[in-house]
């Protein structure tokens, strides 16, 4: 998990990512960090006009959502529905002492569905339609999503806010978070997106050839693991990820030399 989470999210506050998915518009407001403790034990009863997606990065707590109460642990993902009063708080023991600090990251997500919408044509459209119809409030132990925060912090540290990779990671984080609340649709999603993984990887590589990139960076943006990325690349491209990147860079350098750039410039 990011080492300076509060500062990181202060740097991206107010940034939005908007994605059109068929007849849906997905808008994600960049995250904020919140710590509840004995001095600030609750965020108070409140509501939003969008979905509030939360990630428990440390501690335990309690989530009151409408008339329901949920207990939270590290790694849990939970959501507050639009216009539903809710409150997040730390837990007290039998002596009314606070047992642990509760650290959260939260995003605001808005999903707009066209009034003249056609039946869903892709899996992501079906997923969003299913989510709007029925979804869980809490999904337990989803710590793998923390990898997105580490990836985004790396982008921030390199002053690469508002780049394609940054927004793609935010978009993927939002979609995967929604999927965790859709339950059994996750397996279907993974089966149907191999071609999307390759497409996203190729696009990311193509737009970052002059920058340093790692297999972890590419895998995160492509919504997969490093191991699966390497497997899919070899299967569908008949070349390893590293060899593909080197081949692209060599091709660009050769093109620069043909345009009479110096050898040092061509190698940049």
Concise overview:
The protein is of the alpha+beta class. It has helices spanning 5-12, 123-133, 146-157, 164-180, 185-192, 194-207, 215-221, 226-237, 241-258, 263-266, and strands at 16-21, 24-36, 51-58, 61-65, 68-72, 77-80, 86-89, 102-113, 138-139.
Provide the fold topology.
Layout: H1 5-12, E1 16-21, E2 24-36, E3 51-58, E4 61-65, E5 68-72, E6 77-80, E7 86-89, E8 102-113, H2 123-133, E9 138-139, H3 146-157, H4 164-180, H5 185-192, H6 194-207, H7 215-221, H8 226-237, H9 241-258, H10 263-266
Antiparallel strand pairs: 1-2, 2-8, 3-6, 3-8, 4-5, 4-7, 6-9
Helix pairs in contact: 3-4, 6-8
Question: Any idea what the shape is?
Answer: globular
Any idea of the CATH topology of the largest domain? Jelly Rolls
> What is the N-to-C succession of helices and strands?
HEEEEEEEEHEHHHHHHHH
Structural class: alpha+beta
Molecular structure report:
By secondary structure, the protein is an alpha+beta fold. It is built from ten helices and nine strands. The longest helix has 18 residues, at 241-258.
């Amino acid at each position: 998990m990011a080492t300076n989470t509060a500062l990181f999210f202060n740097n991206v506050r107010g940034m939005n990512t908007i994605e059109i998915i068929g007849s849906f518009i997905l808008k994600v407001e960049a995250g904020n960090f919140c710590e509840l403790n004995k001095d600030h034990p609750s965020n108070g009863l409140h509501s939003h006009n969008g979905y509030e997606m939360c990630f428990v990065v440390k501690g335990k707590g309690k989530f009151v959502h409408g008339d329901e109460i949920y207990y939270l642990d590290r790694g849990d993902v939970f959501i507050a529905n639009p216009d539903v009063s809710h409150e997040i708080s730390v837990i007290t023991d039998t002596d009314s002492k606070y047992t642990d600090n509760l650290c959260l990251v939260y995003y605001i997500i808005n999903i707009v569905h066209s009034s003249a919408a056609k039946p869903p044509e892709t899996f992501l459209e079906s997923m969003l339609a299913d989510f709007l119809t029925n979804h869980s409030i809490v999904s337990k132990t989803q710590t793998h999503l923390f990898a997105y925060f580490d990836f985004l912090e790396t982008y921030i540290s390199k002053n690469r806010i508002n780049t394609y990779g940054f927004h793609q990671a935010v978009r993927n984080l939002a979609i995967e978070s929604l999927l965790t609340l859709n339950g059994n649709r996750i397996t279907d999603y993974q089966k149907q997106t191999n071609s999307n993984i390759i497409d996203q990887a190729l696009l990311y590589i193509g737009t970052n050839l002059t920058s340093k990139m790692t297999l972890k960076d590419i895998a995160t943006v492509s919504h997969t693991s490093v191991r699966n990325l390497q497997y899919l690349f070899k299967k569908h491209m008949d070349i390893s990820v590293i060899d593909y990147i080197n081949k692209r860079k060599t091709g660009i350098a050769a093109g620069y030399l043909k345009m009479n750039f110096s050898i040092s410039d061509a190698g940049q």
